[in-house]
Amino acid sequence: MQPIYSICFMCTVRCPIKVMVENDDIKLIEGNPHVDGIEGSICPKGAAGVSLLNDVERLKTPLIRTGPRGSGEWREASWEEALDYVADKLRETMDRYGARSIALTERSHLNSHISKTFMKALGSPNYFTHDSCCKGSLNTAFRSLTGYTDNEVGVDIPKARHIILYGRNYLESIELKAVKQLIKALENGTKLTYIDPRVTVTATKAHKYLMIRPGTDLALNYTLMHVIIKEGLYDREFVDRWVTGFEELKKFVQPFTPEWAERETGIPAREIIDLAREAGAAKPAVIFHYGYRSAHYTNEIYLRRSIIMLNALMGSIEAPGGIFFKKGAKDLGLKPLNKLTGQKLPEITEQRCDRAGTGKLPTPDPNHGVVQLLPQAILKEDPYPVKGLIVWRHDPLVSIPDYKTNKRAFDKLDFIVTIDIHFSETAWYSDVILPESIYLERGDSIQEVDGLKPSLFMRKPAVTPRYNTKPGWEIIKQLAERLNTGQYFPYNTLEDLWAYQLEGTGIRIKDFEEKGYVALSNKPIYWDRRDGLKLKTPSSKIEFVSSLLEKNGFPSFPEYEPVQPPAEGTFRLLIGRNVAHTHVSTQNNPLLNELMRENLLWINTGEAAKLGIQNGQMVRVTSSRGQETIRAYVTDLIHPEAVFMVHGFGRKVPAQTRCYNKGASDTMLQENISDMVGGSPALQHVHVTVQPA
Ligand SMILES: Nc1nc2c(c(=O)[nH]1)N[C@H]1C(S)=C(S)[C@@H](COP(=O)(O)OP(=O)(O)OC[C@H]3O[C@@H](n4cnc5c(=O)[nH]c(N)nc54)[C@H](O)[C@@H]3O)O[C@H]1N2
Ligand SMILES: Nc1nc2c(c(=O)[nH]1)N[C@H]1C(S)=C(S)[C@@H](COP(=O)(O)OP(=O)(O)OC[C@H]3O[C@@H](n4cnc5c(=O)[nH]c(N)nc54)[C@H](O)[C@@H]3O)O[C@H]1N2
Ligand code: SF4
Ligand SMILES: [Mo]
What we know:
Blueprint (H helix, E strand, L loop, with lengths): L1 E6 L8 E7 L2 E7 L12 H4 L1 H5 L9 E3 L8 E3 L2 H19 L4 E5 L5 H11 L4 E3 L1 H16 L6 E3 L6 E5 L9 H12 L3 E5 L5 H5 L2 E3 L6 H14 L5 H7 E2 L1 H8 L4 H8 L3 H14 L3 E3 L11 H15 L8 E3 L48 H7 L7 E5 L3 H4 L3 H9 L3 E6 L4 H4 L3 E4 L11 E3 L5 E3 L14 H11 L11 H9 L14 E3 L22 E2 L3 H5 L19 E6 L13 H6 L4 E5 H7 L6 E5 L4 E9 L6 E5 L19 H4 L17 E6 L1
Parallel strand pairs: 6-7, 6-15, 9-10, 9-13, 10-11, 12-21, 15-16, 16-17, 22-26, 23-25
Antiparallel strand pairs: 1-2, 2-3, 4-5, 4-17, 8-14, 18-19, 19-20, 22-27, 23-26, 24-25, 24-27
Helix pairs in contact: 3-18, 4-18, 5-13, 8-11, 8-12, 8-13, 11-12, 14-16
The site of molybdenum atom has 2 residues, from loops.
């Protein structure tokens, strides 16, 4: 059997894998044993890649819609015909409404430099990623304090003495390497504090679990800062050298006493004081984890800023065991990989349809856009009509809150084309579906993984495509050629694409053969904490008083506004992940479907009793946006103000027979309301009622 080193794509964590292949068939997928921190490990979803390869319900050939949208009436088409058809439709739309009327949305991936180039070459500013719906406010929080995005920052789990997690449910919402690091660190004596309204698997491994009232983490943090400053528990030297706005923070947090926070959060004052002292004693090897999904509430940016500020107070930034800025080829004096976006491309002067980065929405990151604002932009034709939508490796219909409104917006579009591997909800509602080969059947652009020890990784095809599918980079190039912008895509084969990226780096394609990656540095690179932090803010400091916010008219320390507690008889709807599934991608995977077929509604035992709801009974969940039916999981392990469900279920595509109509959809219930300073949707803003079904 032949090992092929590649990169998993059952979720976007992209762990390095070893694929064992015999006669063009996959026998086993394991973690890449040569990679530190992976050492052969794989998660259930990664192992189920074989089941994806053999899934008879995935997309097999290009499809053109013949009946009404969403009717499931298609005809099969050749690639030539489908690509010609898509190019004609895009051209027609652009002729009528201009290039800006075309939007492209994707979940950022290894070929994103190709899709960005495609949009720039067309002349449209409306390139979107999923980012805002995942962690837009975290991105803005980091930029407001350091000038870097959250993507450019990491956590040094192995050397940490104390880790504090705010609903960062590492052991279910996993990144494989971090899971292994965390478990090892716990064995070596690292302390773990876990804060969540719900007892997750991660909570069960913590030294201390704090059941917080949903939406009150900001109150907890202001009080932690109050205690840390009052008791002098912070790293004075670091703060003096690197922080601006400390005096303003000190004054601001003065009124937030532990007794006040106890009333707000439900966490005893004593516990809050203890946590501040324990963190102070472990500094600077302390991580107040800034989170992964940070699309929860409308004040999200201020919560994420407060977490990052706690790290600055601990002096844990760029300290071993703290949080660090990721280093890449540039930091080593090496030439980074070439990207297509590095070419001279047409200048785009049009404003984005979501207005990200401009007057009305100045702070969210225009490089990603604020995709949950796209449905309203389409519906209102404000600031101009958006009429064509290209979707690649994204399912916006169910990944943007408020399903029914999303659908109404899609109804206003003249043309939708989706590049996917499954009948996603969006694909099902499209005019044309272009099927991509799955990650085991294709190669992609080389990945630079920045970190303390930067490396390059390569996704290689392990087997030949099972159906009439193509890699996305080829699909985009062939569309570009039909739209007279082919000159920006100077490759024909995968090897050409790799060679283009590697040109001038001194690294060769064959250097990836033996281990699947090329290490750029063997020892961790830290900047000197006394004098070498390369902060990108105007002051070159960590800006507690933020230039980005203040210059755009937003306060750095707004008055604390509690999130609205649900009225009697209603609950806040919390959402999250499960270890068996990836967002909305894997519910129909034969093996993973067997592991988890439906989601459940977690509801507190006392509350369920009041409503006459038994464990396992079907219940009706109703919000201002819709109604869903789901099985109840009655438990003491959730705060009485909240109910919880795993995202990704309640699917409406009949062709996905295994997950069709199983469980409930959070998207159907959520309101599309955003933190307009940070850019994330408040996915947990909505209140619901629950009744026996
Ligand atoms: N209501 C609600 N909305 C949410 C969330 C939530 O919990 N609830 N979570 C948010 C978060 S944290 C995130 S990260 C986003 C994720 O949002 P999405 O990116 O939309 O979700 P995914 O499940 O990662 O993938 C979307 C699509 O990619 C397709 N896909 C998978 N592999 C490939 C491939 O190789 N090629 C192609 N072309 N397609 C592929 C899948 O079939 C699926 O249709 O959703 C956000 N939105
Ligand atoms: N298995 C699996 N792993 C994944 C993914 C996947 O789809 N599947 N997706 C990846 C992606 S894109 C992301 S963004 C990450 C998400 O990783 P995380 O952000 O760690 O996880 P989530 O599952 O979104 O849920 C977060 C937790 O927040 C809790 N929570 C809700 N409200 C509050 C609150 O007010 N305060 C506090 N303190 N906690 C609260 C919820 O109860 C839940 O347990 O996971 C990544 N890893
Ligand atoms: S976490 Fe699992 S599914 Fe995601 S990339 Fe890693 S192995 Fe694959
Ligand atoms: Mo995410």
